[in-house]
Amino acid sequence: MRKIKVTPFMPTEVEVNEISTNHAQVIAYPFESGYAVTLAHPLRRLILGSSIGYAPISIKIEGATHEFDNIRGMHEDVAVFIINLKNIRFKIIDDSDRIELKYSFSGHKEVTAQDLNNDLVEVVNGDLPLAILNEDATLNFTVVISKGIGYVPSEDLRDDVESDTIALDAFFTPVRKANYKIEHVLVEDNPNFEKIVFDIETDGQIGPVEAFTNALEVMNKQLSVFNTVLDLDISTAPIKRATDDNELKPFMLAVDSLGLSARSFNSLDRAGIKFIGELVLMSESEIKNIKNLGKKSLDEISDCLVENGFGEDFELSDVIRVNLKKKIEQLK
After folding, report:
1. Which residues, at least 6 apart from 164, have a Cβ–Cβ distance to it below 8 Å?
2. How far apart are CA 196 and CA 182, in angstroms?
3. How far apart are CA 48 and CA 177, in angstroms?
4. pLDDT at residue 315 above 80?
5. 72 in helix, strand or coil?
6. Is residue 288 predicted with pLDDT exceeding 90?
7. Residues 244-257: tens digit of each pLDDT
8. What phi and psi, each to the nearest 5 degrees, are found at residue 128?
9. Rounded Cα–Cα distance for residues 220 and 1 (Å)
10. Structural domains of the chain ordered from first start
11. In whole angstroms, what is the distance from residue 251 CA to residue 328 CA?
């Protein structure tokens, strides 16, 4: 005889499998029959449609007035050059929403995406070709990189650019693939419960776990419209990794364990930075912007982080980054 329920079964398990840096699976179970697809489908749409990325939105090329022009000494015409540029995936290093970049190349050279790296942007697919220049060629151009979501056609951007600047179709979405499958899972003697297996791959501008958590936050904010009317408290549960929390312990040590001078420690303490993990999560530019932190203190902090195994070659996985942020927020 089938049992009578007054509330649906609540899923209890969430796992994250990191396949590679830009590819991960997020698995959740067990769901009542039919609930898995009800949640999975809108989440997939949000992963694809609400993930923040970066894209060139306009370009100004010296000697070219439109996309069908040519540049003396450059093998590609401007149209091909623009296509190559739009395939390059940029990542703004600081928190800026939009930046303007100026580039200049001359002489015989094969210009690739990695030649566009500088202190303001990082190119995540640096092996892509951009242009081939002859000995007498000079290529000067200015490109505007913007943060955004989804896709914005060039027609919508033309009113915002100068007359001698070419507006570009902007494809911001950093998610290459977001699929899911529903599998049956056994709960006690019932084989009709379900498991969601999300398969997410990004282009490197953000990680797959970050794309998933961003989608959860967007869904939470969208649903919160009902809170004021119905007096609800809708919140998302944290993603848990099916591994030991010991991975977080080195990051949760107090900053004074780094052996910093009193001046450097006091600067961090006044900024409210208590744990080594907070420094590891910060970019170099964010650390530089800490109030009253001079160059000598910055160098000392960098050296101490290196001595403790958190140097330039150290990389945080997306899962540890997400869990570390949540852990620090709980303790502060």
Report:
1. 60, 65
2. 5
3. 8
4. no
5. coil
6. no
7. 456 778 888 888 88
8. -70, 140
9. 37
10. 13-51+175-230 (3.30.1360.10), 53-171 (2.170.120.12), 245-331 (1.10.150.20)
11. 9
As a whole number, the mean pLDDT across the chain is: 86
The pair of three-digit structure tokens given for residue 280, joined into one six-digit string: 């590891």
pLDDT of 320 strictly over 80: no
pLDDT in tens, 183-218: 999 887 788 899 999 999 999 999 999 999 999 999
Q: The tokens of 295 are what?
A: 């160059």
Any residues with CB less than 8 A from the CB of 99 and at least 6 apart, and which? 92, 120, 121, 144, 145
* Spatial CA neighbour of 90 closest among 151, 167, 172: 172
* 287-294 mean pLDDT: 81
Closest by CA to 316, choosing from 269, 275, 279, is 279
Please say whether the beta carbons of 27 and 197 come within 8 A.
Answer: yes
221 CB contacts (<8 Å, ≥6 apart)? none
Contact criterion met (CB below 8 Å) for 115 and 88? no
**pLDDT digits 0-9 by tens, 126-169:** 899 999 999 999 999 999 999 999 999 999 988 877 778 999 99
Helices and strands of the chain, counted as H and E runs: 9, 14
Residue 243: is its pLDDT beyond 60? no
Angle ∠(40,42,45) on CA atoms, nearest 5? 105
Rounded Cα gap, residues 134 and 190, in angstroms = 70
Q: How many CA atoms lie within 13 A of 15 on its CB side?
A: 12
Burial class (CB in 10 A: 0-12, 13-18, 19+), 198: buried
User: 27 by DSSP, 3-state: which?
Assistant: strand
Residues ≥6 apart with Cβ < 8 Å to 158: 167
Write b or e for each residue in 212-228: b if 16 or more Cβ atoms lie within 10 A of its Cβ, otherwise e: bbbbbebbeeeeeeeee
| pLDDT tens track for 252-284 | 888 888 888 888 888 888 888 888 888 888 877
Closest to 238 (Cα-Cα) out of 26, 46, 73, 92: 26
